[in-house]
Here is the input.
Amino acid sequence: MGNDDLESNNCSAQLEKVDQCIPPLQDRFGRVFDYVRIAIIEKCNLRCTYCMPEEGVEFADKNMILDTDELLRAIGVLARLGVKKIRYTGGEPLMRKDILDLVKGANNTPGIKGVHLTTNGLLFPRLAKDLLDAGLMGVNISLDTLDPGKFKEITRRDGIEEVLESINLAVKLGFPRVKVNVVLMRGFNEDELVAFTELTKDLPVTVRFIEFMPFDAEQIWESGDHFASANNIVDQIKAIYPGLDVASGTRTEHYIFKAPGYAGKIAVIPAFSRDLCGNCSRIRLTADGAVRNCLYSSKDYNLRGLIRKGCSDDQIVTLFRQAYDEKAKDGFEAKKLSDQKIVNLDGLRQPRTSMTQIGG
Ligand code: SAM
Ligand code: SF4
Here is the structure.
């Protein structure tokens, strides 16, 4: 696309800091994609039972993982396509040595308005101040139990003190958005609904109860009856806290409340029920460089291969546009299409069975 084309598009108002303005990334259903979740590593220092088996999964070789320059280049192109929000995830993103450069680089990219991170919190205390200085706006810290014994059972490691310290430190240091991710599972931690909600009494954090999804490298989804639906979680919260106020949140925070007088909020994320597909604004990039247009799709679009063949930025734009032209109406449709045909382009790995390989 040449400069004349760029000037003829009327999108400069929303991309005031971006020098080259092109039409935003949109799909057939009119959804606009302005938020990218980028897995930057597959490896992790925990082994959460709902995510990975004890022995881990087959991690991609290091040379298959996108490096700093490749990631920042992709972010630059995405910013031209109208992306404003970046979330680094993984695996455990704080295990990447270049995490501060990645935060700084994304934050300095014209058009990007917020850089966020999802972490298990183990390494956060030692990096928190530098992350804040690098421009990190928000941190989601995953914690599924407040009980040290259960923490060890769920994560198969120690570390609850560090995670709790991380939550308090993030608030103390003044990160603009601090959230706690809780995968709520029957028979694991459903009995801690109140204890987690009570965290919001004094702490200005959003506690997000997330539905368990079948991306656990096939260990416990099949064998247990652990799924708790968002509707059921909402009903339980409403029964315990009558008079909840409806609060404002992000698009994924489909149900969001605030107990009267409490400092923080409680959200319920229907990640499996998929009530939020109509509002989807997410682009996903896996650590090994695949674009995924839906968490429930198994089709990979090979960005790594394209970049390493020496492509132009316009070719990257075309790849993202193709991926989003092909996005299914919702996660059910995406899953149905994936069951019919597993697509593997140019040697990207299939299937991806754990959140660490997809990017949670
Ligand atoms: N390691 C980091 C962490 O745990 O926060 C970032 C990566 S992790 C894959 C991202 C999020 O996905 C975490 O909040 C985690 O609890 C969630 N997650 C992992 N497996 C899941 C599953 N099977 N169902 C629902 N959420 C899951
Ligand atoms: Fe690691 Fe996060 Fe998966 Fe737990 S959920 S094993 S912390 S990647």
